[in-house]
Design brief:
The protein folds into three domains: 42-245, Galactose-binding domain-like (Jelly Rolls, Sandwich), CATH 2.60.120.260; 251-388, Jelly Rolls (Sandwich), CATH 2.60.120; 415-722, Glycosyltransferase, CATH 1.50.10. It is built from 14 helices and 35 strands. The strands form seven sheets. Strands 10, 11, 15, 16, 17, 18, 19, 20, 21, 22 and 23 form an eleven-stranded mixed β-sheet that branches. A six-stranded antiparallel β-sheet has the order 5-4-7-2-9-12, with no helix packed on it. It has a five-stranded antiparallel β-sheet with strand order 24-30-31-32-35. Helix 3 packs antiparallel against helix 4, helix 5 (485-501) packs parallel to helix 8 and helix 10 packs across helix 12 (662-671).
Length: 802
């Protein structure tokens, strides 16, 4: 999403960091009984002289002397805003998993394998972005916490035995001007002065004699904490601690593919392989343009020796831009420059100084600007450490059209880059989890990886974001509230998706109160016409150029056909959930109300001369979006849906859907019996590849972002529509495979199911015939459909032939 009109609100200073920890239901439990029984409580610690909400980077240390190395030594770690935790110089974790203050996450670690007899150093790098922190980052104040699991480990608890140093070598580099792309909500760049950095601080050989004891909340008991499975009463609870629910992020070294431009130096091929040094003489200015060959997320790593008084500036760009600000073909660099987030490293003259950014950067191109003073600079290495949620690609799709393989790779790459500790809309500009994006990303995750942990977390995040009026926030976690009510309707559909694909009835049932709140809020805005009246907040639907800031006609003043039908779309899904898990009477009421909405839309907004729905009875504008939704909710009889969708595709005078909303257009094609036209609708993705894009863009050119996973939905569609693999019943307890191959002569693929893999291999036989093979995992049965015929499917391998 690109909420260009929204700017970050100023944040009030928070100077108190009082904490008592209570349970969050079963989520706070480590086992069936309360944990940490009588272990002494730990204390949140901080630098006494540092404002709790200012930018700062802090080092915490504790030397722990042990007579013998323990087999196990379990501790629990958290911090505000972020931390990296080390034992004897080795990083063991980073976090905390991003969430809000009512669900502040902690990590459980076994330090045993990393401890030794004698002195051991427990160390934490903790930073607070302060006023520059990303919009997705909640915060109370800078603080760090470590608590032992039992009495034995409590010797390591954070308290006055820990020491702290505020690092004077760090400063933020705000992202401003053209680099923002119009709206920037991610972290700032970093300036690091190596001459002021406490090198080796995490090692046992480092002397911390000049460091001060960490502050322990002025010693008040209310500012101590014990992580427990039972409720604790007392004063205000500022961080409500709950355990980590997703795995650690993947990290691996990545190296640049090519040097596209260079001035002032001559780097060797060995240098970029990490096998040789780059020597930069004194009094030199040099520039290199490095090309990763594809977009990636990575921490930048720079290792240097010497170079007192020198600087190395890295500028990260998704794509280069010409003098007019246009990207053009992403592979072309002539006449183009890099604009974007910057980091500046000042080596300071020491030997083998290793810099790593606090946060990852998103880039294809990195411009490196080096300036030396009197001292030559030796650069030993410059590379990235790729990071993302550890999704494993388990699905595949192959066919006789070679370009589909390249598109699949492009879509999979952007799906990975837009998934970290939460889903992201764009990893470069915002790193925010929006409902509209996330519904599509969740389906991609379940179909391509089988991993639903990030999906479930996202659903819970949005449920937690609900305001007293009933609707969700548009994005969450977000310390700056933003409300797009139409996204609350998509959240209902997202819960329904999860219910259909995962047998998790108790969890879905827990979401019914939130769904009722959303649908009730919309119902209260209906007027006497049977359509929705004027709607508050930002009623975004799609970035159509004819719709100001993505809002269809009638949303502000009333009688939006599109949003009225979208309300019916959510009601129909809510009805199914109520029938199965809640109150059947409420399900019947939702179904009846949806029928009234579609009837009102037909009566008020159907244009018999155009055989299309108007976007609003008062606005003479027609769109693919509104007419697509009319098909999805059966506002036209089934017998008329095919003809309507053919008009939607053929009439280029209609407001056109962008990459995002084409997900719904393609779903409507399938519903109307036009799924065989799916492949031909992928021309925009072929155009993206022809423009040198290695990930899918936010919207058609000119686009702000080159990395939006809401545009990666064809990978879902290839499996769910072209191969036709979909749940036949809730919980995916049975499967329906109804392929629509279109122009393909051959198609085969694999999709992970909770019971195992579903494998489909198909080949055309003549004009209408089909033969192939379907393999279902143990415990799964279903039906195969082709040209009006049905074959029962059983677990195991079976032949299909017509």
């Amino acid at each position: 999403m690109n909420p260009s009109a929204v700017r970050r609100a100023s944040r009030a200073a928070i100077v108190v960091f009082t904490l008592l920890v209570g349970s969050r239901g079963s989520e706070a439990q480590f086992g069936p009984t309360p944990v940490f029984g009588g272990a002494p409580p730990a204390s949140w610690i901080a630098d006494a002289d540092a404002p709790g909400n200012a930018f700062g980077v802090f080092h915490f240390r504790r030397v722990l002397r042990l007579a013998a190395p323990p087999e196990h030594f379990v501790v629990h770690v958290s911090a505000d805003n972020r931390y990296r935790f080390f034992v004897n110089g080795q990083q063991l974790s980073s976090g905390p998993q991003r969430s809000d203050l009512m669900h502040w996450r902690y990590e459980t670690l076994d330090l045993g394998p990393h401890l030794r007899a004698g002195d051991n150093v427990l160390a934490a790098l903790v930073w607070n972005w302060g006023p520059y922190r990303p919009v997705a980052q909640f915060s109370r104040r800078t603080a760090f916490l470590l608590q032992g699991d039992t009495d034995r480990e409590a010797v390591a608890n954070t308290g006055p035995e820990w020491k702290v140093l505020s690092n004077p070598g760090y400063a933020p580099i705000p992202v401003v001007g053209p680099a923002t792309g119009g709206y920037y909500a991610a972290p700032p760049g970093e300036s690091v002065d190596g001459a002021r950095y406490p090198w080796g601080w995490e090692q046992a050989t480092f002397s911390d004699d000049t460091w001060r004891p960490a502050a322990v909340g002025e010693g008040r008991a209310a500012e101590r904490t014990q992580i427990r499975g039972t409720a604790v009463t007392g004063e205000a609870r500022l961080w409500q601690l709950v355990p980590r629910s997703i795995p650690p992020m993947e990290e691996k070294v990545v190296r640049f593919a090519t040097v596209r431009r260079v001035e002032g130096i001559a780097p060797s091929e060995a240098f970029f392989k990490g096998e040789g040094d780059l020597m930069v003489p004194a009094h030199t200015r040099a520039t290199m343009l490095l090309d990763q060959s594809h977009l990636t997320n990575a921490y930048a790593v720079l290792e240097t020796s010497g170079g007192a008084g020198s600087s190395v500036t890295l500028t990260y760009a998704e794509a280069l831009k010409d003098a007019q600000g246009n990207k053009g073909n992403r592979n072309e660099i002539e006449g183009k420059t890099a604009l974007g987030v910057k980091d500046v490293f000042r080596p300071g003259g020491g030997e083998h100084r290793l810099f790593q950014t606090l946060w990852f950067r998103t880039y294809r191109y990195v411009q490196v600007e080096i300036e030396t003073a009197d001292d030559p600079l030796r650069i030993h290495d410059l590379h990235g450490i790729f990071t993302a949620y550890p999704f494993e690609e388990k699905a595949r799709f192959e066919s006789d059209l070679p370009w589909i393989k390249d598109m699949w790779e492009m879509n999979w790459r952007v799906a990975r880059l837009c998934a970290g500790e939460t889903y992201f809309d764009t990893p470069y500009y915002e790193q925010l989890q929006y409902i509209g994006d996330t519904r599509i990303q969740a389906l991609i995750s379940m179909y391509l990886t089988g991993d639903d942990r990030l999906v479930r977390q996202a659903i819970s995040h949005f449920d937690a974001s609900r305001i007293p009026e009933g609707i969700t926030a548009s994005r969450y976690p977000s310390d700056l509230g933003q409300y797009i009510p139409t996204f609350s309707l998509i959240w209902v559909a997202m819960v329904h998706d999860y219910w259909m694909h995962r047998d998790d009835a108790a969890y879905v049932r827990s979401l019914l109160p939130g769904i009722r709140g959303v649908l009730g809020w919309y119902e209260s805005h209906l007027d006497q016409t049977g359509l929705l009246g004027p709607m508050p907040w930002w009623n975004f639907v799609d970035w159509a150029k004819e719709w100001p800031v993505g809002i269809p006609p009638g949303a502000k003043d009333g009688h939006s056909t599109m949003i009225t039908l979208q309300f019916a779309y959510a009601l129909q899904r809510g009805a199914e959930l109520e029938d199965a898990l809640g109150m059947a009477s409420e399900g019947a009421r939702y179904r009846a109300l949806a029928g009234k909405l579609t009837a009102a839309a037909r009566a008020k907004a159907w244009d018999p001369s155009r055989h299309l729905f108007l976007d609003s009875p008062e606005a003479k504008l027609f769109s693919q979006q509104t007419n697509t939704m009319a098909v999805l909710v059966d506002a036209v009889p089934a017998a008329e849906q095919r003809a309507l969708m053919e008009r939607v595709l053929a009439d280029h005078a209609l407001v056109q859907s962008t990459y995002y909303y084409s997900f719904y257009v393609l779903e409507a094609l399938r519903k109307a019996g036009l799924a065989d036209r799916y492949i031909e609708q992928l021309a925009p993705w072929r155009a993206m590849m022809a423009m040198g894009l290695t990930t899918t863009a936010e919207s058609p050119e000119p686009t702000r972002s080159d990395s939006h996973a809401w545009s990666a939905h064809p990978n879902y569609g290839l499996l769910a529509t072209v191969l036709g693999i979909r749940p036949a019943s809730a919980g995916f307890r049975s499967v329906r495979i109804a392929p629509s191959l279109g122009p393909l002569k051959r198609a085969e693929g694999r999709m992970p199911h909770p019971l195992g893999d579903i494998v489909v291999r198909l080949e055309r036989s003549g004009d209408q015939g089909l033969r192939g093979e379907v393999t279902l995992p143990p415990g799964l049965s279903g039906v195969f459909e082709w040209n009006g015929r049905k074959w029962p499917l059983r677990p195991g391998r079976q032949q299909i032939g017509s």
